Amino acid sequence: MAKGRFNAAVGAGVGAVLVLASACGGGSEGTAKGRLAAESSSPVTITPGDGATAVKPDGTVEVKASSGTLTGVTLQGGGATVAGELAADRKSWRSSRTLVPGTDYTVTAQGERSGKPIAVTSRFSTLKPSKTLRVVDITPNRTGEKVGVGMPVFVRFNRAVAGQEAKAAVERALTVTPEKPVEGAWRWIGDDQVVYRTKTYWAPHQKVRVDARLAGVGLGNGVYGAKDSAATMEIGAERITKGSIARHEMTVYQDGKKIRHIPFSAGNGSTREYTTTSGVHLLMGSEGHVTMVSPGRKPGDPGYYKTEVDWAVRFSNSGEYTHSAPWNVGIQGSANTSHGCLNLSPANARWYHETAQRGDVLDLTGSTRQVEWDNGWGFWQLSFAKWKAGSALS
Question: Where does the signal sequence lie (predicted)?
């Protein structure tokens, strides 16, 4: 009869399966189990209770010992263990992160009461939301690639993140961990993309880990983070190019040492679009062979051109490249005659192309046009204070 009362109590809301790991006393096996269960009156409770369904992934799993103490708690689901913290008095345990939606979990708690071990188990499942947020891309992400010291981190999502509160929740789930610490911050450049930039350049020759611990993060309107994502990028040598548009030349430094002087011919400045931008640029990629076409003009229009170039390296989204220009080698270093690109000799263009890393710094001065902060990767044009103002946590 006692056994029946205990089972009914569990079904009525204790929400955990209680097992005493050792038992003593007279009577039949059934009587002993019933008496111990009644005497225990559930010394350990687990929330969510056993059998719970549609549990919110951003809730907290909690274990409490009403009598006795806890010796250990494990929370597992989806093949992974969820971290938690045991209180100093060992009377309670709380999970320390969100759960994966649509996943079965098992909580196992061990404890001790009156010198006897206790084991309690609860099994529950999290809700499966109709709308989820997931990472579709973390850049840089090319296997074996080394990037420059100015390289930002881009995280793009499968859907828009609506509102400051939701954006802040996403940012709190994102961490950037370099081997050589430096301050940094996120900035939203669209509702579906956020960018991380450091206060000063990365230290060279290190790895940086990016974690998006989005699983179970609640974003409002029924949207939850679907799963965690991670990436590791490797910072290569510190390569900084300093160029003067007025003097038609640039110097490449690697890890603080001058390694090459390169004369160039920059934009002729006859129009804004034909003026090479000053400011801190980042190399965006070595694109090799590129077809250059005059912006906003069609064949037959004054100033129309279509030119094939080799060894091209992009440094803005407004069509600026370094590239080979064998037709004007004689004036490189003495005059600016291009449509906005930096014209280099074939040898210099090829060397720059073959040694470039995405995220290398190209710092140009001497023109009447500053590169816009959102023109390509011109993020270093903003002070760090202004950069941080684009964070939902600012």
Answer: none
8 A C-beta contact, residue 373 and residue 282: no
Give me 169's structure tokens. 């929740």
Alpha carbon distance 211, 378 (integer Å): 24
385: phi > 0 → left, psi -120 to 50 → alpha, else beta; which?
Answer: alpha
The helix or strand, by DSSP H or E, that contains position 349, with its residue range, turns out to be helix 346-355
Ordered DSSP codes for 262-316: EE-B-B--SSSTTSPPBEEEE--EEEEEEEEE-TT--TTSTT--EEEEEEEEE--
- Write down which residue in 204, 236, 268 finishes a domain: 236
Residue 394 lies inside a defined structural domain of this protein: no
Annotated active-site positions, please? 323, 341
pTM (2 decimals)? 0.86
Rg (Cα) of the chain, in Å, rounded?
Answer: 31
For residues 101 and 142, membership in a common domain is answered with no
The tokens describing 19, both together, are 């097992």
Q: Give the up-direction half-sphere exposure of residue 189: CA atoms within 13 A in the CB hemisphere.
A: 20
Range of the domain at 342: 239-379
At 225, is the secondary structure helix, strand, or coil? strand
Instruction: Evaluate whether 126 touches 103 at the Cβ level (below 8 Å).
Output: yes
* pLDDT tens sequence across 315-370: 999 999 999 999 999 999 999 999 999 999 999 999 999 999 999 999 999 999 99
pLDDT at 41: 61
Q: Which two tokens stand for residue 195?
A: 């960018």
Residue 387 lies in a domain: no
Using an 8 Å Cβ cutoff, are 185 and 196 in contact?
yes
